[in-house]
């Protein structure tokens, strides 16, 4: 969870808030009609810095609209439930909080509404209704969600709440009884129905407002591709299964058609996300579905292979070290899929992992990683860890420190444990005092920085393909195959010839620190 990505993924956004990244990234909404070179607004966190804690993205969805002349009732209505008198297309203001999976939910809702003729407002007070997609993974994320709802109520008064926090509507209703509607995660139809009730669509059948790939909140050159919802695991620090339910996989053909549309629309990098990507298809018994002239199984390997044929970079997030992940590594060695695995491990002490109810034995994980690197020597592994889990002893923490020194992972984030209301872990042991949590995080990050710096310096002199994220007054910034947007490091690039956002160029690496690389286009 980065929260920037932050949510759900507890694996993406482990409890506790991480180091670095003080401010949430703000992205401008963009669609085909109004793409911004938006990465200016979304500075990438540094390599080895942990993902952002809890609430990630507060998207300031300032879409330019095709109907500048349209008018909306923007004054606060005396009866908030009464539909405003709207001339022209009704306008929606949208706040998206949480991880990339929540971001995909927001994109789906917006795609649907844009298809019906709704426009996006730049500000709450110019909108007919405000939608807040909440994050409920951490208590701090809930507080931020409640604050976002409060802001929308104060500035507009006609507010629909959805997302993870919507699974517990009482808490929200208690604070904001006048909300128009509260719906749970993935309840797209309920959100859309609530919008219809609040402000009916002014449909214009002659306008095609929505690009075939849907409305995207990311810059044009990369997109998140959600392959499933929910999770069958029951990690003790996580309430995501309670909020989002058990695993529900999308048919492989649906995922591939969406990916194909994205690539046709100019997306150069597909970021595969879910709660547990390696479990893809278990719930539907790996069912086949039609894709082009053949049938494709809903299986991790089969999907990765087919995605690798689409001509874009394919990056796999939230992969667990299950044995069948071995099959995908040769695809990375062949260049079909990026040599990058985002694998949230959370700890390395067997006793802590047992209390966390996480799969895996750290000895076997080390052996598995060693074999993966034999098959694909330039594999980059990103992981996140929690320190200060209830009852964590100094000896257990030392096991973790020894493990990360030996595993030599390229990108690592560290979070202190934060007790999430309702998580069984809170009762599993004595709480580690906050000052000790912070001290352990500092020791962990110091140890990892030594590893990261050595691995980064080994890239000096190499020529790497780099995808350009931003070109501006601050210079040119991109990412190598080893860096995911928002959570990893950057490559600072100089170039004698013009480069544009989304270009993939070859860069000779000339300098490195523990997070970023520097080099020139060759
Ligand atoms: S229960 Fe599922 S979503 Fe939660 S941390 Fe575990 S694997 Fe991730």
TrEMBL record:
Radical SAM core domain location: 217-454
Where on this chain does [4Fe-4S] cluster 2 bind? 231, 235, 238
Q: What is this protein called?
A: Ribosomal protein uS12 methylthiotransferase RimO
Cofactor(s), by name: [4Fe-4S] cluster
For whether the record's keyword set contains ATP-binding, the answer is no
Q: Where in the cell is it found?
A: Cytoplasm
Q: Which UniProt keywords apply?
A: 4Fe-4S, Cytoplasm, Iron, Iron-sulfur, Metal-binding, Ribonucleoprotein, Ribosomal protein, S-adenosyl-L-methionine, Transferase
Can you give the residue ranges of the TRAM domain?
Answer: 457-522
Specify the taxonomic lineage: Bacteria, Pseudomonadati, Pseudomonadota, Alphaproteobacteria, Hyphomicrobiales
């Amino acid at each position: 969870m980065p929260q920037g990505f932050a949510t759900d993924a507890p694996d993406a956004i482990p409890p506790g808030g991480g180091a670095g990244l003080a401010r949430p990234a703000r992205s401008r909404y963009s669609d085909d009609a109004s793409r911004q070179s938006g990465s200016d607004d979304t500075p990438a966190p540094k390599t080895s810095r942990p993902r952002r804690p809890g609430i990630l993205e507060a998207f300031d969805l300032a879409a330019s609209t095709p109907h500048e002349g349209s008018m909306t009732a923007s004054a606060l209505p005396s009866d908030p439930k009464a539909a405003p008198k709207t001339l022209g297309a009704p306008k929606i203001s949208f706040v998206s909080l949480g991880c990339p999976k929540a971001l995909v939910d927001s994109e789906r809702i917006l795609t649907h509404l844009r298809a019906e003729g709704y426009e996006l407002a730049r500000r709450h007070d110019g909108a007919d209704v405000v939608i807040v997609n909440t994050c409920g993974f951490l208590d701090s994320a809930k507080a931020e969600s409640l604050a976002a709802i409060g802001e929308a109520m104060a500035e507009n008064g006609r507010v629909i709440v959805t997302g993870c926090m919507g699974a517990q509507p009482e808490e929200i209703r208690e604070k904001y009884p006048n909300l128009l509607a509260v719906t749970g995660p993935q309840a797209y139809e309920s959100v859309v129905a609530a919008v219809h009730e609040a402000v009916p669509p002014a449909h214009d059948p002659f306008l095609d407002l929505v690009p075939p790939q849907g409305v995207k909140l990311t810059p044009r050159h990369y997109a998140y591709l959600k392959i499933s919802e929910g999770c069958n695991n029951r990690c003790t620090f996580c309430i995501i299964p309670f909020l989002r339910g058990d695993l529900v996989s999308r048919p492989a053909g649906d995922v591939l058609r969406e990916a194909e549309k994205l690539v046709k629309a100019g997306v150069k990098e597909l970021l595969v996300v879910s709660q547990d990507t390696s479990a893809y298809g278990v719930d539907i018994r790996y069912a086949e579905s039609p894709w082009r002239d053949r049938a494709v199984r809903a299986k991790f390997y089969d999907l990765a292979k087919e995605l690798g044929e689409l001509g874009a970079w394919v990056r796999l997030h939230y992969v667990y070290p299950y044995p069948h992940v071995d099959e995908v590594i040769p695809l990375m060695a062949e260049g079909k899929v990026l040599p990058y695995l985002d694998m949230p491990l959370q700890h390395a002490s067997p006793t802590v992992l047992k209390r966390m109810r996480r799969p895996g034995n750290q000895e076997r994980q080390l052996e598995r990683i060693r074999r993966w690197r034999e098959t694909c020597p330039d594999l980059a592994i990103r992981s996140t860890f929690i320190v200060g889990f209830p009852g964590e002893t100094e000896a257990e923490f030392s096991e973790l420190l020894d493990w990360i020194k030996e595993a030599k992972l390229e990108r690592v984030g560290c979070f202190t444990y934060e007790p999430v209301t309702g998580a069984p872990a809170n009762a599993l042991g004595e709480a580690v005092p906050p000052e000790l949590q912070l001290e352990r995080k500092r020791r962990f990050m110091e140890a990892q920085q030594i590893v990261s710096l050595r691995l980064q310096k080994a890239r000096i002199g190499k020529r790497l393909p780099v995808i350009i994220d931003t070109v501006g007054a601050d210079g040119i910034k991109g990412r190598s195959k080893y860096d995911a947007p928002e959570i990893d490091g950057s490559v600072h690039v100089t170039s004698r010839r013009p480069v544009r956002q989304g270009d993939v160029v070859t860069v000779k690496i000339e300098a490195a620190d523990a997070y970023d690389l520097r080099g020139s286009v060759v």
